């Protein structure tokens, strides 16, 4: 492993001044915009004892507007913002956001108003809402981050019910009865600011102003707000804080996370990819300072005694002599190389990466400086995320009590994986008496059921619960003590390698290793069958009155020969059958059908064929090649089933099986030779489905059903046309290929009749000459004449061998 070299720095720019400048700018822009903030359930399990209870009550309202900004820390089944109850009605007002269903929920007025509006809801991102309702006019308006929805309330104006006075107003819990009936899974875990309830309907423009962080004009006084939370609310287990308004209004949802373990550059790059991010590259002096501040708490783990602590996503281009982003290859618009490295120039080696000085154990002017470094050095990777991304856990049974989706957090001072609803994965250090093989372990727990746990023992200091790992489970309902689980950030259209890397699904089982660990070419079984699958029986008919259709297409590759004497012909054909089997499920199908080949012992049902000649005579068939493939038709996979280890499952009802057979077939043909050699013959090759009657399965042509791609001009005949026709036999379905053969009479004229005619003439002339000689007394030539007769007879016999015999 390469070692680091310390370089003394003389860089004069003071980071302290930059920090001061950045801080001044933020304070100047937000001095008058610091908002009181309520923090609900900042850590730990969902509970029913975290709430704000309003010390007063509401008056009767026929119109109201509710505005607030909030950020979900960990979702509940229902994230309740406002709950207002009376003695006879628990949901006089219920205003909630549902992350799971991605919806905004408003219930009101003795069940007269029940709205559930679909919209995008994010985790760990600030969202601003305003909701206005006019009960007499039966109208409502919702605005989220400047986007507006409007609608009408069902019913008649005469049926309008008001929001009644005298109830109990609670923030952060859902009341099922007056001041009680709380459910921890309908509570709020997150940050809430700028809550305001108005006794009138704000205009759409005012609500847009609020949700885009502008001042509402003209200003309107709310009846309930967060201006003085302690005075107006009874605070129960809620942390009170403050936040700059600009922080709640930032449109950027990106953030950085530092992994506090030493890795070479390539391993750091791969880790960021696996968790759904990429190595960070500061784009401005402000971002550089923020990264420096973030790096200070972990410098003891990353510096290894040196000032360079972090890997940045920057690599050098030697020919162009410029630094660029390692992933996009774009030249940098901002950098902070110091004079001790000649400001990053020249770039000498192509394997030069960039380290970040994230330690304060150096000169102040070196804070946050970038240093060209050997890519084989070990530092901590800092990963950049455009937004909170989910990491899915695959392999749990359907009834498992653990979360399926997690996101990376740094809530407790160390990296952990927080479940969307109620689980968490945290890292535990090795025991004090650790052995050389004890690197600690990861624990998966459910907050509200601490007895339900799973443990993953680390195999190295850098082992994260990403990719495929073996977990030891206690008290989950799946019934297994050891289970393999896959944690992956891969999206639709991607395949999860066993190490957690994502590749495009088309690269799965394409005969080339694309995963770093090569696992995209392992376990390439494209199909799965239920345990009770019977490969001897066809799929069930969806409609009992209609048989299953098997599409048939025959490609005639060549006609090997026409044998008139034996009344038959031989051809090379490719038979293609296509059908669907809804009992099957397919995995990681490629668009290239030839890559989706099924093999192995567990093969699905395949139609059996019998090939017949004219008169239903049996044909001789020699199989040269055979393959069962899957043809990908469906644009989208089935809804993701995280019980399966890998994603991208597709239905057998939408993606047909294809049987391809290359055959040499010798079959009979009832030649009609009366007009020979000026004849035209029609021969048929029958294909019969055997073993099952046409009540259940039939063969139908795929398109025109047949195509000829060989040489049509044969030695004696010309193949003029081919077509497919239905030819059933009793209760069995079948098709037949009919081919027309037109005799090329010129062949016989030029190859048989003309030579024979010439020989006859020669023989006749020879005979005449011999007779003349004999009359002149040359009797010794009789042997020669006899030889001419034998030659003629032999030629006639030879010429007649391939010809039809006269009756």
Key words describing this protein structure:
single chain; 807 residues; mainly beta; Jelly Rolls; eight-stranded antiparallel beta barrel; 37% strand; disordered N terminus
Protein model, in words:
It contains nine helices and 45 strands. The chain folds into five domains: 35-248, Jelly Rolls; 253-385, Roll (Mannose-Binding Protein A, Chain A); 391-489, no CATH class; 548-743, Acetylcholine Binding Protein, Chain: A, CATH 2.70.170.10; 748-799. The chain is mainly beta. The protein is 13% helix and 37% strand. The model is unreliable at 1-32, 783-788 and 790-807 (pLDDT under 50). The strands form eight sheets. Strands 1, 3, 8, 9, 10, 12, 13 and 15 form an eight-stranded antiparallel sheet that branches. Disulfide bonds join 490-502, 497-515, 509-524. GO terms for molecular function: extracellular ligand-gated monoatomic ion channel activity; transmembrane signaling receptor activity. Residues 1-29 form the signal peptide.
Secondary-structure blueprint:
Blueprint lengths: L14 H16 L3 E7 L10 E4 L8 E10 L6 E8 L2 E10 L4 E6 L4 E6 L8 E8 L4 E6 L2 E6 L15 E4 L18 E9 L5 H8 L12 E2 L3 H4 E4 L2 E6 H4 L6 E4 L6 H10 L3 E2 L5 H11 L3 H4 L5 E10 L4 E4 L26 E6 L12 E5 L5 E6 L5 E4 L10 E5 L6 E4 L3 E6 L12 E6 L2 E9 L9 E8 L7 E7 L5 E3 L5 E3 L22 E2 L19 E16 L4 E12 L5 E2 L10 E2 L9 E5 L7 E11 L19 E2 L5 E12 L11 E11 L6 E12 L8 E10 L7 E10 L1 H31 L6 H18 L8
Parallel strand pairs: 18-22, 34-43
Antiparallel strand pairs: 1-12, 1-15, 2-11, 2-14, 3-8, 3-12, 4-5, 4-11, 5-6, 6-7, 8-9, 9-10, 12-13, 16-22, 17-22, 18-19, 18-20, 20-21, 23-24, 23-30, 24-25, 25-26, 26-27, 27-28, 28-29, 29-30, 31-32, 33-36, 34-35, 35-41, 36-40, 37-39, 38-42, 39-41, 42-45, 44-45
Helix pairs in contact: 8-9
